[in-house]
Amino acid sequence: MSLRVGLIGSGYMGRAHALAFRAAASVFDLPVEPELALLADIDVDTARAAAEALGFASHTGDWRELVADPSIDLVDITTPNQLHAEMALAAIEAGKHVYCEKPLAPTAAEARPMVEAAEAAGTKTMVGFNYLKNPITALAKEIIDSGEIGEVFGFRGIHFEDYMLDPNTLVTAWRFDPTSGDGVVADLGSHIVSLGRHLMGPIDSVAAERQIVVDERTSPDGDPVKIEVADQVSSLLRFANGARGTVEASWVATGRKMAVACEVRGTEGALMFDFERLNELQLYTTGQPIGREGFTTILAGPAHQDFASFVPAPGHQLGFNDLKTIEIRDLIEGIHSPGGAPWPDFREAYEVQRVIDAIIESDRRGAWFDVDEVS
Amino acid sequence: MSLRVGLIGSGYMGRAHALAFRAAASVFDLPVEPELALLADIDVDTARAAAEALGFASHTGDWRELVADPSIDLVDITTPNQLHAEMALAAIEAGKHVYCEKPLAPTAAEARPMVEAAEAAGTKTMVGFNYLKNPITALAKEIIDSGEIGEVFGFRGIHFEDYMLDPNTLVTAWRFDPTSGDGVVADLGSHIVSLGRHLMGPIDSVAAERQIVVDERTSPDGDPVKIEVADQVSSLLRFANGARGTVEASWVATGRKMAVACEVRGTEGALMFDFERLNELQLYTTGQPIGREGFTTILAGPAHQDFASFVPAPGHQLGFNDLKTIEIRDLIEGIHSPGGAPWPDFREAYEVQRVIDAIIESDRRGAWFDVDEVS
Amino acid sequence: MSLRVGLIGSGYMGRAHALAFRAAASVFDLPVEPELALLADIDVDTARAAAEALGFASHTGDWRELVADPSIDLVDITTPNQLHAEMALAAIEAGKHVYCEKPLAPTAAEARPMVEAAEAAGTKTMVGFNYLKNPITALAKEIIDSGEIGEVFGFRGIHFEDYMLDPNTLVTAWRFDPTSGDGVVADLGSHIVSLGRHLMGPIDSVAAERQIVVDERTSPDGDPVKIEVADQVSSLLRFANGARGTVEASWVATGRKMAVACEVRGTEGALMFDFERLNELQLYTTGQPIGREGFTTILAGPAHQDFASFVPAPGHQLGFNDLKTIEIRDLIEGIHSPGGAPWPDFREAYEVQRVIDAIIESDRRGAWFDVDEVS
Amino acid sequence: MSLRVGLIGSGYMGRAHALAFRAAASVFDLPVEPELALLADIDVDTARAAAEALGFASHTGDWRELVADPSIDLVDITTPNQLHAEMALAAIEAGKHVYCEKPLAPTAAEARPMVEAAEAAGTKTMVGFNYLKNPITALAKEIIDSGEIGEVFGFRGIHFEDYMLDPNTLVTAWRFDPTSGDGVVADLGSHIVSLGRHLMGPIDSVAAERQIVVDERTSPDGDPVKIEVADQVSSLLRFANGARGTVEASWVATGRKMAVACEVRGTEGALMFDFERLNELQLYTTGQPIGREGFTTILAGPAHQDFASFVPAPGHQLGFNDLKTIEIRDLIEGIHSPGGAPWPDFREAYEVQRVIDAIIESDRRGAWFDVDEVS
Description:
The structure is a homotetramer of 375-residue chains.
Chain A: E1 2-8, H1 12-27, E2 33-40, H2 44-54, E3 58-60, H3 63-68, E4 74-77, H4 84-93, E5 97-100, H5 108-121, E6 125-127, H6 135-145, E7 152-160, H7 184-200, E8 203-211, E9 216-218, E10 224-226, E11 232-239, E12 244-250, E13 259-266, E14 269-274, E15 280-285, E16 295-299, H8 307-310, H9 320-336, H10 346-365, E17 369-370
Parallel strand pairs in A: 1-2, 1-4, 2-3, 4-5, 5-6, 7-12
Antiparallel strand pairs in A: 7-13, 8-11, 8-17, 9-10, 11-12, 13-14, 14-15, 15-16
Helix pairs in contact in A: 1-9, 4-5, 5-10, 6-7, 7-10
């Protein structure tokens, strides 16, 4: 038995998914083997080349053909954000399971029907918030949920990279198209909001400030392009559990490359991580002997979730692609175990998107905004 | 010739000042020798013991006597915040120079007359924002001001410690008295705001959230005390130069001991420091050779301001007390050089206080608040 | 066309190889597809289970059968060290290419015939010194070879782990059998010696000290076992280029998990790395502006060798398994490109082994020992 | 009552001592006040200027005059190494206590009569191995001596700086004079050997390799100078307690500024520090909960020896000069407490020197050398 995968899109994430489907089958003992069946891209030539490069059995220049193909079990969407909804809705209607890159959609309003359709159809869904899959994230969550650091009351999260710093390059042009979402708020903001929810629970309200740092960029043709989407965003957060926090995202964070970093403060301890050191967590607990207090640097190892499936020796480290591999394992197990549910699913991604929308609305109003007010 | 110092208060900061006055005279070639002349404290016995321990020539149980003493040139105030104004005003009236611990006063309204009186009287003033005196801070400012990291557009600052985490101890009880200022906002918030202004320039407006984490503490007598001052605060910042940023302060930041940390993002570089590593600055500049980019860890050394006065060898490190020693040098030079002006003076401290007040008012209103609206 | 792989042994490294063969085919554009054809292990049941788990098409309980199978192109040896020679010699005689885990053999005397046989037969060989494959290692070598840090004169290398610290467990019992090599000297010492040679060139002579820290361990049956192989080793090194250095290995290095760390000092710069942070290199160059000198933390990224084949974004990090994947790519390309030669080959591994033997002999004699004296 | 100090030499260390004598009187509650009475230097003009700058009451161009002055209680020697013996012997003969910078003398043979004379005369002595005075060193020693990390079996120590890297400058010319000792072996080697003995106990034998990296330098007059003293040294160590280790020193360690770093491995834990982060210790203990193991970063604080005398708040950090201040406190208390003995005294410094001499002799012979064979 196999799970026949149809991939739409073959860019950075399309390739990452293809690698991860193959790796998951090697690394984990999956209930069903994924089969790279069909790849769709913008036109048939692009699709053919990608299918060959990524090892898909067949290809098509029309994603609707892929969605309509009765042999496909899972539709995997890695296209620009603004295309997710139409594709996912079509896939759900065709009875497929859907795996979609983040953010789920440019707005919560666009995401909502996706959730509703999926839940109505009973298809299984997943969104690629890969940082949730790091064994270090699982460790952080375990520490928080077990009460090891007491009652958590403070959070500080960032996702800082600098790939959009250079004003002379219009990298990944679609990301500057407002219909794809609000720039960094959608792209990296959704990652760090998903981590915040994962570790701390629901967010009630936000007070945010967006910033366009490079207000004119150059198109691939050399033309000036006026920029309307955010390069940076900072937000205060009120969590439902009473904790307070901040979240910031920037794709012009000079010098930072994958600074996905969280700090959680609790009444009996604290933890910190920065995924530029992907395999480390800093843990402090009160009650250490006097004169011996400090943050302990925990290196990921086989004592932590999923690590041993990759390598049995502590300190021997996972890489970024391994996070995607774990994600795929969760996807396939979620689809194939009876009553299983991949996670984070469309609903969770919709909840993330509501926070994103609240952040944007808060910035527009210059005031606190309740996430509940986002429809 | 000497500068006769009258110290009011002999706690943590009183002692730190006494050590620093003596050290400054050893380390630097001062224009005038400070003389530890007179110490005032809450009563004559406390004052006598402190004068002996700290090496003051005489003592008094009445600070008014100190202020009135015609032989005193400089009044040094290290008492609880709510007492600064009365003492400083009296000292200024008596024609003394005044050196006051931070924050200048519990509110800008209380601070303003202090500034006006000092400026009217022409006495010289200084406030103890000691982190501004770190050679690493001077280096950061030089890097920013010289344009080495281009136009700065982002700031992120924290001052995190955890000395108030334990709910069973009412440490430094006066800090929980609302008339001394708003808890951590006054105590640590003033430090990080002063750093933000120092590095980035004036702050136009803020959107802040205060938090009381431990809402009941225990008095020294074992009685429960309801807490009304903030344990944590986070604020969004709009700088006058267009940059955006955040600032956070917590005295319940579990595990953090002196995390006075700033990040500055510019169009051509970035810098970061965390004073738990007091002698290090991380510097990134664009334009490094491809494949060799990264943050450089600069260790303080004789190439940096004031360092060589302490030790001629790089990497040999200053300590916290050395910051106070530099501060005292600045104070004495500012007083004694013709046209000199110690810095940060009362006016700068008042400007810091206006930001503090704006933060509190923003929290109260749940909205952005302009610093200019603080009288 | 495919490269049919026969794997002998299915422990930690056997599985790592299987994962890497599959990953290499996904990640890289290989000249030929590896095919997991046949797996041999100690008996047919073990082999069958392993073949199924690791995805090999068939299995055998007799490695000689694997070596004799005319359809096998490459024999991959991951058995205990003392078995390498017989298996490799048989494979070479059968005209196979051979990929062997490190160390090549327990002694240089045992390794030498392996080199000679392979070179005489013209088969291609490779030994699994995976740390050489890290893009950070390639970066270090490029920096040294280009002269960026001037003439290198100093080296300091360690490989510290602690998996043998617990005296109550006789982990991986064969590693304590002296016929498999001298404990940590063979196991981790060979890794760090290979790195030293890779970065600094040939080693002329050594002065070393071995140490047995836990002199009695407990067998799986609970019996005491007297230990004769080294738990730690330290050696002074004289390199052929005139540089001096030290190398140390320990499998009882309390708290260290994968501390494969090197420092190289040159007349115009220095570099350092520690593979507990697998994606970082610290680089210092003289001639930085005054007051801006320091070590730069370079994060692995697409500017560095092989990185972009995994992920296009800097800071997004490779894991331990990715090193093996690069190794396999080098193996397959070395086998299939005309005139190609995988590296490090048996000869290089033999040279590493001569240093290992010189270290042991130096310890025995308590004096410097020339590597050339090792036959 | 006061302790009248006569200082010989007013360079880097002369000034550091003067600062520390004054600071010690401020920071600590000393049994007797030190009085900066008399300063001797190479000629009367140099001495006069230095006395004024450093705050000594009087001065002389003839150190013999200082030693002969009956009002002087303590002779403090900060001259080049080769002058220590004659000065110290004269001071001891005159019945003075003697405080001498490290190393005690260029050779153990020169140091021995100093020890014997001091012990015969009953005068008190101390040598300036200031790194022993760091609260972090005290913490490390406490951890080792208490058995917290079990039986210690491994040591790794370095003292790396780069102030002699530039071949175009003959910095501190006397350090290249072989009669002052063997270059870095004397200068930094003595520091790290003293730390090794302090933490691990006596050293039985050594196997060492010296290296001259820059074999020709330029004199202040621009003439070439052939160098005969070591720029680097590495040594294997056998400790009397059975532990093994290495020690290395370099004053051409490109990029390193004050890398005084030790690692100690024990059967139940390990510790590490690097004094480029002067206030941090890394501690690992076995027996941490599974999945929570790691090195804990302990920041110096009031729970550690002597810290609270400087500042009551953890994380607020001491600087290099503070180590000298603690050293002076130990000196004065050792002199003035009945039966007191400053430490490390001349005998300890002689034992350090024997190790240094053994290292040099081992290098000369190319073989292990017993410290006991050094007379």
